[in-house]
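Fresh eyes needed here. Have a critical look at this protein's tokenised backbone.
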Amino acid sequence: MKAVADYRPYGWRGKIGLIVPSTNTINEPEFWRLAPKGVTIHTARATLLGKMTEDSYIRMAEAVKQAADDLATAEVDVVAYGCTSGSFVCSLQDIVADLHQRTGVPAIATSGSVVAALRALGVKRVAVATPYVDFVNEAERRFLADYGFEVTSLHGLGMGETQEERRGIGRVPPEHLYRMARACDRPEAEAIFLSCTNVPTFDVIAQIEADLGKPVVTSNQSCFWACLRMLGLPDRIEGHGRLLSDCVAPIGMDSFALPKSVRAA
């Protein structure tokens, strides 16, 4: 046994632990779609019930703790909470600190990966498209402002007033996400951000970048990128935006730290 203690038939370059909301059907397949040779994804689910309210996000954040404990037993090398809105309506820093403590490995949540991605791309002004209801959109605007980004415009679909409508976010077609990107774009925006881990963005990222001439960051794209770079893996993945093809430097948990001015407030 000692001779093969470190042997892995799969995930020999790195094992990503992914925690998704129980209703999410997009994040996992998009992660697997990007996984380079030797990288595997191991998923746990956090129960999400009810319409979009602050209470539903708080209850899911509690469920994330058990999911993290479960993933720790799979000996993952990095752990990610795959929910954008759940990691800015609740405290990103608290969630990540708890994930790190429970698993003993580098941790990130999707909203933190977005911050790290925008910083890696040198972006300060961003146009945002989301499927969210108004209070979530406003929370996201405040979150991005706290991290030093100017939201030049924000276009939301207003989905989530009921449980069924919330589940329906995963059925928004990629072609509509393309139209949303064009609708939210402004001349002063340096990048487009398509928010939410339960919308299928991968088929349109390259086309948006080509047509608008600026980088596109999406929730699942940025979170997978962050996981790779936190593992120290420099793979360039083509066809899914400049972030994955151009930004290859390693990152750490300090890559999405709050600015000193906000921490001191």
About this structure: The chain has a mean pLDDT of 95. The first helix runs from residue 27 to 34. Residues 2-109 form a domain with the Rossmann fold fold (CATH 3.40.50.12500).
